[in-house]
Target: Bifunctional protein FolD
Amino acid sequence: MSEARIIDGKAFAADLRGKIAEGVADVRARHALVPGLAVVLVGEDPASQVYVRNKGEQTREAGMHSVTHRLPADTTQDALLRLVDQLNHDPSIHGILVQLPLPAHIDSAAVLAAIDPAKDVDGFHVVNAGRLAVGLPALVPCTPLGCLMLLKDTVGSLRGLHAVVVGRSNIVGKPMAQLLLQADCTVTVAHSRTVDLAETCRRADILVAAVGRPEMVRGDWIKEGAVVIDVGINRVPARDPAAAAAGKTRLVGDVAFEEAKAFAGAITPVPGGVGPMTIACLLLNTLTAACRSRGLELPP
Ligand code: NDP
Model:
């Protein structure tokens, strides 16, 4: 049994961002088109603040127009909907991202539904979910799009492979399953009511874990040589008991990485696997939305 190849999502994402920056430079030079992304943050959630800052920095680094709207936690739903409407009509903005979670008094579904589907770079609008499901061009949710890119880079053609997706959320599990179907995989979607999850996972040539439970997928759930994509981001106490007692934490995925390495053919680490692909795909979606707004050919 040989040890798994570690899929370097950080390097892949850096390379992708470089290609996107080239695409942006090209549309700026040839079409005077500056792709623009507006990110809306409501409230003070610390993790969201970090994500939003990173998104802004990487958008600017790619040569795009970047706008961040930071709104107080007591912003009303009406005020947020007015801002979304304003961004929908702003010709300098091609992508709109409303950072989730929103404060409890705001109906997230209503806000996501108000975003112009052509500017919905998160791919969460039902129009984009529907277009993806029926195989029409869509803006595809960033995390599963990033997973698919890593898989294609690792495996090549996915045709005929059995993919098991653990998790059926609208933002990861379901669109992941749709993308794998489009890539001609045979797809099984598992969830909290799946009977004998371990046995289901053992049948996977490709295993995508998007559950949100630290190290739930054990090494012996993995078929020898399978490609494992770990979407989970879970914060757990640090290994060192003294550090843990001092409140130090570390990130782990949904897969028990050390065990899984002994079985998998290739595996994404956490951190440094899927995570960096998410923002890179957000930039890609923004470039795609900008090109489509002018009827231009999409970047390769
Ligand atoms: P959700 O909580 O929305 O969905 C979790 C899914 O896992 C549900 O479908 C649930 O099943 C299923 N599930 C929960 N417990 C079990 C179990 N014991 N056995 C089998 N299935 C189970 O999470 P998300 O999809 O939003 O996120 C999943 C993980 O991915 C999280 O760790 C999140 O932090 C991470 N994430 C990472 C991103 C990145 O950029 N790398 C981006 C987005 C998410 P059911 O439907 O039956 O309840």
Observations:
- The longest strand covers residues 36-42.
- The domain at 142-275 is CATH 3.40.50.720 (Rossmann fold).
- The pocket of NDP is lined by residues 143, 166-169, 171-173, 190-194, 197, 210-213, 231-234, 274-275, 278 (CB under 6 Å).
- The longest helix spans residues 9-31.
